[in-house]
Recover the amino acids of this structure.
C-alpha cells in the first residue's frame, strides 16, 4: 500500500475513533432539564422519555473496545505501516522480525512444518529403514537456505543441491514400499496434483498419465525427485510458418505412420505420398529432439512417437494442430511449496503408481526409450 493510502486510512480511523469517543463522553455528561415527574417532556405514542444512565456493563464493553483499538494500533503496524512496525514480533527463519500478516503466516508454517518433519523422521523414515536420509535432508536444507539468502550464490551451489536431491533417490524407493509413507503421499497427491493429473493419476488431455511406464523425463526415483523439485518447462514449437500447411500435413501423416495406432478407424488409411514427403521433413526438423526413429529422447524431454500414447490425442487433425500451432506446458516446481520431506513422500507415491512390468498396458510394443511425461505437463507432439 502506498504512503498516501496508508496515511489516509489511518487518519480516517483515528478520526472515527475520536468522533465516537467524543459522542460517548457528551452523552454521559449531558444533563437535560427534567419535568416534575422525572421525564424530559418528550412523549411519543403515549411513551414518555426518562433520563436514565447508560448501563455500566454497556459502558465497560464500549470503553474496553476503544482501549483495545488503541492497543491494537500500538502493537501492530496499523498506524502509517510504512513507518510504524508496531511492537509485536514473530519468529521467522530463526530471526525475530516485526509482526505482519505475512510474517505471522510464515512463522505458523514453520511451526507446523517442524512438527511434520519431526514426525516424518521418527515415524516414517525410521520404520522404512531410511533413517540415513536424515543427514542428507539436513545438508540439503542448509544448501537451500544458503541459496535463498545469498545475493550472489556460489556458481556450483545449484549443482550441489541437485546432487543432494539425487542422493535421496534410494530412500524414495524404500518409502514406496512403506504403507505409512504411501498413505501420506497419496494425501499430498490429492491436495496438490489431482487437479491436473486426476484423483486416479491417469491424467487427461494435456495432462500425463502417471500410472503407465511411459515417461518424458525418465521414471526413476531420481528423475521424479528432480521434476518435483525444479519443475519442467517444455514446448513443442509451431511449425506452420517454417514448413507451410502442406508440410504440416505431410509431417503429420508421417508421424501417424510411426505410431502403433496408425490403423485406427478415426484416422483411416494413410496417404503414402504424404508419408514419403513427411519422412524428409521429419528427418530435417524433428529428428533432433525425437530421434530419427521417432522414439524420442529423455535428455531432450521429447516423447516417443512410435507408441499409441498421446498427451493431446492421436487423431489426424489433433496431430496437425500440434504441428501447426505447437504446444506449451509447465509443470510447476514444488520445492518452495512443499519442502524436501513432503516431496520425498510425494515422489515415493508417484514411483509406486508406475507400471514397472516393462510393458505399458496401452502400448504393447513400447520400449525402454518410450517417454511420455509423468510429473510434467510438457507440450509435445505426442
Amino acid at each position: 500500500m502506498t504512503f498516501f493510502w496508508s496515511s489516509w486510512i489511518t487518519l480516517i480511523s483515528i478520526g472515527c475513533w475520536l468522533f465516537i469517543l467524543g459522542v460517548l463522553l457528551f452523552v454521559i455528561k449531558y444533563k437535560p432539564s427534567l419535568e416534575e415527574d422525572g421525564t424530559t417532556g418528550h412523549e411519543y405514542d403515549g411513551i414518555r422519555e426518562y433520563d436514565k444512565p447508560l448501563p455500566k456493563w454497556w459502558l465497560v464493553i464500549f470503553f474496553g473496545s476503544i482501549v483495545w483499538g488503541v492497543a491494537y494500533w500500538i502493537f501492530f503496524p496499523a498506524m502509517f505501516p510504512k513507518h510504524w512496525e508496531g511492537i509485536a514480533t514473530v519468529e521467522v527463519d530463526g530471526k525475530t522480525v516485526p509482526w505482519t500478516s505475512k510474517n505471522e503466516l510464515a512463522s505458523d508454517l514453520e511451526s507446523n512444518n517442524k512438527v511434520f518433519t519431526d514426525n516424518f523422521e521418527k515415524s516414517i523414515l525410521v520404520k522404512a529403514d531410511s533413517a540415513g536420509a536424515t543427514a542428507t535432508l539436513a545438508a540439503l536444507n542448509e544448501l537451500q537456505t544458503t541459496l535463498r539468502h545469498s545475493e550472489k550464490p556460489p556458481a556450483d551451489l545449484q549443482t550441489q543441491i541437485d546432487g543432494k536431491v539425487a542422493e535421496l533417490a534410494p530412500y524414495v524407493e524404500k518409502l514406496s514400499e512403506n504403507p505409512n509413507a504411501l498413505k501420506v503421499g497419496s494425501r499430498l497427491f490429492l491436495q496438490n496434483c489431482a487437479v491436473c493429473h486426476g484423483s486416479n493419476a491417469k491424467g487427461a488431455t494435456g495432462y500425463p498419465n502417471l500410472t503407465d511406464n511411459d515417461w518424458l523425463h525418465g521414471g526413476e526415483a531420481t528423475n521424479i525427485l528432480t521434476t518435483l523439485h525444479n519443475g519442467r518447462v517444455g514446448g513443442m514449437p509451431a511449425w506452420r510458418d517454417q514448413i507451410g500447411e502442406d508440410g504440416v500435413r505431410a509431417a503429420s501423416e508421417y508421424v501417424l505412420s510411426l505410431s502403433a495406432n496408425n490403423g485406427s478407424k478415426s484416422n483411416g488409411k494413410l496417404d503414402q505420398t504424404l508419408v514419403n514427403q513427411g519422412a524428409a521433413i521429419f528427418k530435417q526438423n524433428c529428428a533432433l529432439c525425437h530421434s530419427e526413429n521417432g522414439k524420442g529422447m529423455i535428455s531432450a524431454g521429447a516423447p516417443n512417437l512410435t507408441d499409441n500414447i498421446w498427451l493431446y490425442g492421436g487423431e489426424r487433425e489433433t496431430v496437425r494442430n500440434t504441428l501447426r500451432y505447437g504446444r506449451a506446458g509447465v509443470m510447476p516446481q514444488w520445492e518452495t511449496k512443499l519442502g524436501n520431506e513432503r516431496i520425498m513422500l510425494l515422489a515415493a507415491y508417484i514411483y509406486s503408481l508406475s507400471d514397472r512390468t516393462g510393458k505399458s498396458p496401452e502400448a504393447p510394443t513400447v520400449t525402454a526409450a518410450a517417454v511420455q511425461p509423468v510429473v510434467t505437463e510438457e507440450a509435445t507432439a505426442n
